[in-house]
Amino acid sequence: MGKYTEDAKKMLELIGGKENISAVSHCVTRMRFVLVDPSKADIKGIEALKSVKGSFTQAGQFQVIVGNDVANFYNDFAAVSGVEGVSKDAAKQAAKGNMNLAQRLLANLAEIFAPLIPALVVGGLILGFRNFLEAVPILNNGQDTIVSQYQFWAGVNHFLWIIGEAIFHFLPVGITWSVARKFGTTQILGIVLGITLVSPQLLNAYGVAGGAEIPQWDFGFFQIDMIGYQAQVIPAMLAGFTLVYLEKFFKKIVPEYLSMILVPFFALIPTVLLAHVVLGPIGWVIGDAISSVVYGGLTSAFGWLFASVFGFLYAPLVITGLHHMTNAIDLQLMNEFGGTNLWPMIALSNIAQGSAVLAIIFLHKGNKEEQQISIPAAISCYMGVTEPAMFGINIKYIYPFVAAMIGSALAAIVSVSSGVMANSIGVGGIPGFLSIQPKYMLMFVIAMLIAIVVPFVLTIIFDKKGILKGKGMDLKLKYF
Predict the structure, then answer these.
(1) Are 144 and 136 within 8 A, CB to CB?
(2) What is the pTM of this model?
(3) Are 50 and 198 contained in the same domain?
(4) Tell me, what DSSP letter sits at residue 480?
(5) Residue-wise DSSP of 370-389
(6) Angle between the 234-253 and 280-299 helix axes, to the nearest 10 degrees?
(7) Domain annotation covers residue 109
(8) CA 105, CA 118: separation in Å to the nearest integer?
(9) Final residue of a structural domain among 38, 71, 99
(10) CA separation for the pair 200, 196 (Å, rounded)
């Protein structure tokens, strides 16, 4: 008998039995169920199990938080249930049967950007460090930068740009690869397509924006502009979707014995042509419009209102999965305006959720069982990952979740009203200050202090005054 056999048997019964399980898998801390009928799951009963730290439903999957020992729990559950597990990707596909069209669309977008996030975070850290080396005058009474005084650090700064350039300037390669990977088509064709959007023989996108003369491919009776799409998100996505569609279309009509030769040829060449003639220019206009609207809203007289709404609602966006769409907007802002005033608010929201958990740790000190999830969750928030805190603690009690939303809104107002800009996406928590442009660092630190102090204090006040207490489970059952 395994360590979790008894709890596994009870969970099988509470979840509606073997016949209610369409697919099951696990990640680092959670069991992931795709249920035939989610209403049959006894959420209160499941969360009462000793080995369970909490539960939530996201993207069509019922997820049960077990903790770092989830692999052993999974093995015991598989043994008592006789249900064979599947991969996380297979579980995600099965879960889409429980999602409507809009949810499936958002899930697909999330799965396109998710594999890119580690590179974007590394790139953000590198740009932040380079920012500190070359743009912050900390030597000789604030007159000189480190790079201007030390050749070693000048060399480090120059060397690191090769990585930053690979991540951000050649981002379309990652996007087209990820689209091909997501939809199960030939990944190397996605990579080749991305390279054709950023080829050195094309005029760099930054040169186009600067008004440089655009070279052309001359076909005699018509010409095509040789424009690169470095750091462009939407042109790359449109091109990637087109490649996927054409490859799948030709696979259906081309005989299998000719498929390896003809399908890549007829899929790739028309896509590259369309990318440079139609999709790229259209995507450029769309991306420019989106970034202009967001940037204009945040820098207008009503920027504080936009900031308060975004700061307040960003955490709920994480629950729905909509937050992944902000990656594309951030990248577009960086390309268009040399920085993003949206991303700092995301970092502040993450910090606020961590501070609310910190207050719960303070209020519930001595609760060793809860601390197994609350302490790692708070640390995770401060490093930019909020799901363990939100699903494991804050939504469970609801009042810390609301306190964090209020603190996030106030911090966002200060950030936007002060014109805070980040050079890039970075670690979405306390280390995020490294990505902030030097002249705005002080104001961002002040906004960070608001995101730390306000949720902590409000959570304690809400607890002592009984505000929203006892509402967490009701809300969870209603919306999740």
Answers:
(1) no
(2) 0.67
(3) no
(4) -
(5) HHHHHHHHHHHHHTT--HHH
(6) 150
(7) no
(8) 22
(9) 99
(10) 9
The pLDDT profile of the chain, 480 residues, written as one tens digit per residue, is 688 899 999 999 999 998 998 888 887 678 888 888 888 999 889 988 888 877 877 767 888 888 778 888 998 998 888 887 554 555 455 555 555 666 666 667 767 877 887 787 787 778 778 877 887 778 888 788 899 999 999 999 999 999 988 888 898 999 999 999 988 899 999 999 999 999 989 988 777 766 788 899 999 888 998 988 888 888 999 999 999 999 999 999 999 889 999 999 999 999 999 999 999 899 888 877 877 888 888 888 888 999 999 999 888 877 655 566 677 788 778 877 888 898 899 999 999 999 999 999 999 988 887 787 788 888 888 887 776 788 778 887 889 999 999 999 999 999 999 999 988 777 778 888 878 888 898 999 999 999 999 999 999 999 998 888 755 544 443 434
The rounded distance, in Å, linking the Cα atoms of 234 and 236 is 5
The reply to whether 305 and 286 lie within a common domain is no
Distance CA 363, CA 276 (A): 59
> What is the residue range of 166's domain?
115-292
Q: What is the spatial distance between Cα 283 and Cα 227, in angstroms, rounded to a whole number? A: 13
Domain boundary among 67, 99, 131: 99
Domain count, the chain: 3
- Do 438 and 409 share a domain, yes or no? yes
Co-location of 33 and 56 in the same domain? yes
Q: Are residues 59 and 121 in the same domain?
A: no
Residue whose C-alpha is closest to residue 397's, from 432, 352, 357: 357
> In this structure, are 312 and 287 located in the same domain?
no
Query: Which residues lie closer than 8 Å to 14 by C-beta, 6 or more apart?
Result: 41, 42, 45, 46, 49
Distance between CA atoms of residues 416 and 303, nearest Å: 7
d(CA 131, CA 157): 9
Instruction: Compute the half-sphere exposure of residue 78: CA atoms within 13 Å on the CB side of its CA.
Output: 15
381 included as an active-site residue: no
Catalytic site residue from 3, 18, 19, 27: 27
CA–CA distances in Å: residue 265 to residues 98, 239, 250, 271: 37, 15, 10, 10
Nearest to 239 by CA among 286, 287, 177: 177
